[in-house]
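pls ignore typos typing on phone
adenosine-5'-triphosphate + seq
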Amino acid sequence: MHVTRLDIRRLRRFDEVQLLPSPGLNLITGDNGAGKTSVLEALHLMAYGRSFRARVRDGLIRHGDEATEVFVEWRERRAGTVQTMPGTNPGANAEATSLASTPPGRPDTTGGPSGEDREGLPAGSGLISDGAERTRRAGLRHSGRDWEGRLDGRPVSQLGDLCAALAVVSFEPGSHALITGAAENRRRYLDWGLFHVEQHFLPLWRRYARALRQRNALLKSRAGDEHLDAWDRELAEAGEPLSQYRQRYLDAIEPGLARLAADLAPSLGTLRLEYQPGWRREDFPLVDALLFCRERDRLAGFTSVGPHRADWRIGFGALPGREALSRGQAKLTALAALLAQAEHHAAICLDWPVIGLDDLASELDRQHQARVLDWVRASGAQAFITGTEVPPGLAASKGAITLFHVEHGMLQRLE
Ligand SMILES: Nc1ncnc2c1ncn2[C@@H]1O[C@H](COP(=O)(O)OP(=O)(O)OP(=O)(O)O)[C@@H](O)[C@H]1O
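k done
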């Protein structure tokens, strides 16, 4: 998929800007504080319902305004999501390759903008099909507390449905948290991938989240066993398959991630992934684990076992543990994980997610920049790269790039 138009209103320092990007590489330059990252944040907001830097109410809305608005128009393959369990059928494009060679088969994403220009947020005028591709539109108005969204001309009742439409993978200065930060980052990574490739995952995830809320409320109110039994069963019925989806997703990602990590950080040795389901799954079914922990959970007032406590870890042959990774190595590993996720998405959905690379030059040395840019270019994915200057690695990476410049709250395309 590729974005053909992005309108941003009242986000950070922007009053109102519009970006008409190319389907390939787009570079956004500007001085410190000009608003380059804000452009990526706007895209991320539409795809995740939050910024990668903060929640909406923590500074995303322009000072003095009530809400921020983002409108995105994009082209995507009509085939949409192929409903296949991750890991069971990676698809024709799943032959993952290294950064040094050409990435997997390039989905055809060459269609241009629909040509139809729309004003106004967050309304959309419906879905426009055109052969193998279609144009989609999403608008989101977010005040931090409330939100209002439209997708293809219709109101959206759940933010998750809006976010599941546009797939964006963002690499930014905080991305190392995926490897060295809290488990929540790693659960989100799995869940984001699954939202997009497995149609049964989101309802299951919602069912689990609801059951967890209910069980926690009962624990807090010291409810009797007869009430908790039913919610334990419900939690387990949603939690077991949810956990299996995550495990299989991680298994499906692992080979591509290992190859990408070997290219980006070869000195670390062989990569392996370990999934931790959130309870001793090898010993007990979840329903039994919940029962065993019931008294402890009553005292604590929350559920201490289950997929909401899941995690996954990366280990490297040459290191004692992920704690031994330098910050730079953690960043390279996070980038490998994000690109592997993008690659897997492309293999299953036959369409690349949009890739955001914030401040690439300050994150990677010249040689790694060039490798990543070559890889992204060869993939056919649309990418948004930001930097105070043209990244040095871009000089070594041959091919077209569309340039934009941000200054004084304005966003301009440079010819
Ligand atoms: N809520 C807000 N209201 C108004 N202005 C804001 C708000 N939040 C941040 N800003 C300003 O918006 C700009 C944010 O810019 P952004 O982080 O996108 O810049 P950047 O070009 O990526 O900068 P850098 O190169 O320093 O990373 C900064 O000038 C910041 O002071």
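Residues 27 and 385 are 5 Å apart (CA to CA). The domain at 2-414 is CATH 3.40.50.300 (Rossmann fold). more later
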